[in-house]
Amino acid sequence: MKKIILANPRGFCAGVDRAITIVEKALEKYGAPVYVRHEVVHNKYVVDGLVERGAIFIEDIKDVPAGSILIYSAHGVPLSVRDEAQSKNLTMIFDATCPLVSKVHVEIRNLYRQGYTIIMIGHKGHPEVEGTMGQVTDHIHLIEHEADIDNLELPRDIEKIAVVTQTTLSVDETKSIIEKLKKTFPNLKLPKNEDICYATQNRQDAVKAMAESCDAVIVIGSKNSSNSNRLKELAENLGVKSYLIDFDYEIQPEWLNEVSSVGVTAGASAPEVLVEGVINRLRGLGYSTTESLSVVEEHMTFALPSELRS
Ligand code: SF4
Question: Where does (2E)-4-hydroxy-3-methylbut-2-enyl diphosphate bind (predicted)?
Answer without folding.
Answer: 42, 75, 126, 167, 225-227, 269
